[in-house]
Amino acid sequence: DWSANTVPFSPPISPSQPGEGLVLRPLCTADLNRGFFKVLSQLTLASDVTPEQFIKKFEHMKLTGDYYVIVVEDTSLGQIVATATLIVEHKFIHSCAKRGRIEEVVVSDICRGKQLGKLLVSCLTLLSRKLDCYKITLECAPKNVAFYEKFGYSASDETYMQRRF
Ligand code: 16G
C-alpha cells in the first residue's frame, strides 16, 4: 500500500499519478533520445556515450535483473525530467540476504518543486522492502542529508571511503 508506507505528499501524487503531464515508468531504450543523459549530467559527468554503448550497458543491467532504473517523462515535451536507480546487491551474510542501493537520483532543474525526488526515493525504498532487502543505503552530498532523513535514512557510524581511478 503506497500511501501507508511513504511520507505524505501534498498534492497527493503517487507512482501511477505523478502529476499533470508526467509518467513514472522504467527506463527504456528510446529514452536515450529523450534527454536521459542531459538529466544525468545535472548530477555528474555523463556524456560521450554512443547509442551502442548505451544499449550494451542497458542490456547487461536488464540481464542481471538487479537494476531498477526509473524515470519520469514529461509527455508533452517527450523529455525525461527525473531519474533514480535501485541496485540489488547479493550477499552471503545475513542468511544470503540482499542489500539495496539507491543511486543517481536526479530531478531536472526545469522540474523542481513537484515532489519528484520524493516520489522516486519513496518508490525505490518501498520496492527494496518488497524485494526483501535487509537494508538500503545511499551516498549523498551533506546538503541533501535532511532530504533523505525524511524517508527514514540516517547517517551511519561507518565512514564512506573511496579510491578514484
Ligand atoms: C551522488 C549520487 C550517486 C552518484 C554520485 C556520482 C545519489 C543518492 N547519490 O553521490 O548515486 O553515483 O553522486 O558522483 O543520487 P561521482 O561522479 O562523483 O561518482
Automatic annotation (TrEMBL):
It is found in: Endosome membrane; Golgi apparatus membrane. Keywords: Acyltransferase, Endosome, Golgi apparatus, Membrane, Transferase. It catalyses: D-glucosamine 6-phosphate + acetyl-CoA = N-acetyl-D-glucosamine 6-phosphate + CoA + H(+). One of its GO terms (molecular function) is glucosamine 6-phosphate N-acetyltransferase activity. Transmembrane segments: none annotated. It is an enzyme of class 2 (transferase). Pathway: Nucleotide-sugar biosynthesis; UDP-N-acetyl-alpha-D-glucosamine biosynthesis; N-acetyl-alpha-D-glucosamine 1-phosphate from alpha-D-glucosamine 6-phosphate (route I): step 1/2. Residues 22-165 form the N-acetyltransferase domain. It is a peripheral membrane protein. One of its GO terms (cellular component) is Golgi membrane. It comes from the Eukaryota. One of its GO terms (biological process) is UDP-N-acetylglucosamine biosynthetic process. Its EC number is 2.3.1.4. This is Glucosamine 6-phosphate N-acetyltransferase. It comes from Lepisosteus oculatus (Spotted gar).
